[in-house]
Design brief:
By secondary structure, the chain is α/β, with parallel strands linked by helices. The protein has two domains: 2-51 and 380-394 and 416-438, Urease, subunit C, domain 1; 54-372, Metal-dependent hydrolases (TIM Barrel, Alpha-Beta Barrel), CATH 3.20.20. Helix content is 31%, strand content 23%. It has 14 helices and 21 strands. The chain has helices spanning 74-83, 101-112, 137-142, 160-172, 184-196, 204-207, 211-228, 240-251, 262-266, 277-280, 291-303, 318-322, 341-350, 357-372, and strands at 3-8, 11-13, 18-20, 22-26, 29-34, 39-44, 49-52, 54-56, 64-65, 68-69, 86-93, 119-125, 147-151, 176-180, 232-234, 256-260, 308-309, 388-398, 417-427, 430-434, 437-438. The protein has an eight-stranded parallel beta sheet. Strands 3-2-7-18-19-20-21 form a seven-stranded mixed beta sheet. Strand 9 and strand 10 form a beta hairpin. Helix 4 (160-172) packs across helix 7 (211-228) and helix 7 packs parallel to helix 8 (240-251). It starts with a strand and ends in a 14-residue tail after the last strand. It binds N-(aminocarbonyl)-beta-alanine and zinc ion (2 copies). N-(aminocarbonyl)-beta-alanine (URP) binds at residues 60, 180, 284-285, 312, 314, 333-334.
Length: 452
Amino acid sequence: MKYDLVIKNGTIVTAGQSYSADIGVIGEQIAVIDQNLHGRAEIDAQGKLVTPGAVDIHVHMEMPIGEIVSSDDFFTGTRAASYGGTTAIVDFVEPDPDESMLEALTNRRAIADPKVTIDYGLHMTIGPVEIDKLDQLPEVYEAGCPSFKLYMAYGFCLSDDELMVAMEAIRDVNGLPVIHTENWAVITALIDRSLSKGRVSPSWHPRCRPAVMEGEAAGRAIDIATLVGSRLHIFHITCEDVVDRLSAARGKGIPVTGETCPQYLFLTQDIYDRPSVEGALPVCSPPIRGKKSQEALWRALGQGNLQIVSTDHCPFTRAEKATGLGDFSKIPGGVPSIEMRFPALYSSGVVPERITPNQWVDICCTTPARIAGFDRKGDIAIGFDADIVIFDPDQRVVLSEETLHEEVDWTPYDGLMIQGWPQVTISRGEVIVEDGVFYGRAGRGQFVSRHF
Ligand code: URP
Ligand code: ZN
Ligand code: ZN
């Protein structure tokens, strides 16, 4: 039988094993994994690793914050993702107060569908206004949006009783709450105190969002989920205070998972002490912490005490970041990481043996897909989408605004040398990036109806 595409002679790396075989693709799916296959098109992957496309379940494209929106739109952001080997993302819907959740989902899809170059899903945000709309959750789940974003910070912040009823409603549709855990009351008090003393520079940002209170909030969220019998996924974990609570809960069989992000694995808190706008650029929440936290996160990944790495990709330009220079609490939060995540985890995870190659695939591809409910992504297996990366473990790339493709005029990883980079990115059987050339197109990506 002739296949549409055969990837030959590579070392297939999945979450479970590494082995030599060819992959035959028919149409958009993996049809066979065997030796000596032939196809109408063939790619020689000799000396390369062949992995599932990476899955990033926490990104913010063209996300509105006040008057501005994050600078990558669904086209530029997904194009940058594909350069870095990511073939599926999950972004967010934030309903307007007078919109139903389904209307908001339709409207967000109308923005994303014509632009995406890779497949995507959406988490539905439940803010205080949506607490009165919880009866809409069954139809939102049915529309392919089974994960619900809860905040313990910002204007979307839910009180503990609101968290409880939201998690109950999510549980009742067999959905997944995904949560931003910080203690908003303590943070706002510390910010007010800091500003009133004239402490307005970005170096005060991490001091007003202490790790111990991120841990407290995560523990509270886990306890509420446990009380109501809901599963839970904790976003952007920065510190041991959260990892310890997560591990303790998982040890008791509580169905909670956690992610960290590249900014917490590659940067340290002193970055906020840089002068002028340089200190404002890396402002994100929760904040980047010290070296000890960074090492604890790497250890937790290696020991399986943190399940995945997503990016929380949310770029703003230098000019937008500079608007908060007189008051760090006004700096739009978020950093770009969508392109470097998968290769950077190889370079600083696999190469120095902090994680194995199989853990790398598990952390970046397989477990994110399972957590988010993508049932045909995140693995190299027959019947799965042919989302595949041919990864050159020896290629070296120095990260900079020039080498990356994100639509933003800075990167927090400027000068970082990465060993290992995707040579080819394939999305549902179509080569969309090869040797640094983008062959995808806006709108070829599809909204994926997810479920559990
Ligand atoms: O500062 C951040 N992380 N911005 C993106 C929104 C969020 O909290 O995830
Ligand atoms: Zn968040
Ligand atoms: Zn986020």
